[in-house]
């Protein structure tokens, strides 16, 4: 089935699709930048890894300890042990599992000094809510306090946009371009699905 929506595909925000889309977008951006920036700059893709709690995803992994019983032992115990009905019935609850999030990003480095001159971030669902948002905002603040430019691409309609001053304009998508030499002033590009041709 073809995408019935103009512009961005809203189904991409589903967790099972976003990671692949995010990685491919970062790789495509890096490939597009390389010929424009060589030989003075080097384009590097990397990932930052963090763990967040409170995700609604189900984490599947190996337990630290497992208890297994042989068939012979379980048959013997079944005949030898009387089990009474428990006084209190348990209810099913979810325990807070920490989920590892791997977030791709792009750094543009000066070839001569090896310094990062620009960071390009594509915002993921984990960056816009909960503990993942707090961690991303801390990283973002470090960039703001450095001599590194930041390009932040938010193609997610879900979640609160990352904070900037002087705007309450609603939009589906946003791109923030923050040049270190003009901070605190930055350029914010706002656009909606209906803006696409």
Question: Which features would summarize this protein structure in a list?
Answer:
single chain, 197 residues, alpha+beta, tt1808, chain A, 6-stranded mixed beta sheet, 3 helices, 6 strands, 24% helix
Tally of structural domains: 1
Shape estimate: elongated
Mean pLDDT: 78
In terms of DSSP E residues, the strand content is 25-35%
Q: Give the spatial strand order of the biggest sheet.
A: 1-2-3-4-5-6
Number of helices: 3
Radius of gyration: 24 Å
**Beginning-to-end CA distance, first to last residue:** 20 Å
Question: What's the topology here?
Answer:
Layout: H1 15-37, E1 41-53, H2 71-80, E2 98-110, E3 116-122, H3 130-144, E4 149-154, E5 173-178, E6 187-191
Parallel strand pairs: 3-4
Antiparallel strand pairs: 1-2, 2-3, 4-5, 5-6
């Amino acid at each position: 089935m073809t995408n019935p929506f103009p512009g961005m595909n809203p189904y991409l925000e589903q967790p099972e699709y976003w990671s692949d889309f995010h990685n491919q977008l970062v790789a495509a951006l890096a490939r597009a930048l390389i010929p424009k920036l060589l030989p003075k700059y080097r384009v590097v893709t990397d990932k930052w890894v963090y763990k967040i709690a409170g995700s609604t995803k189900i984490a599947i992994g190996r337990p630290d300890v497992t208890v297994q019983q042989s068939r012979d032992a379980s048959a013997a115990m079944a005949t030898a042990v009387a089990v009474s009905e428990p006084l209190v019935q348990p209810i099913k609850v979810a325990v807070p599992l920490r989920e590892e999030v791997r977030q791709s990003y792009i750094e543009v480095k000066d070839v001569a000094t090896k310094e990062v001159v620009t960071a390009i971030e594509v915002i993921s669902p984990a960056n816009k809510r909960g503990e993942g948002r707090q961690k991303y905002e801390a990283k973002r603040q470090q960039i703001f306090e450095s001599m590194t430019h930041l390009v932040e691409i938010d193609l997610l309609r879900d979640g609160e946009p990352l904070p900037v001053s002087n705007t309450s304009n609603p939009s589906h998508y946003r791109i923030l371009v923050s040049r270190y030499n003009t901070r605190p002033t930055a350029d914010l590009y706002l656009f909606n699905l209906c803006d696409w041709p």
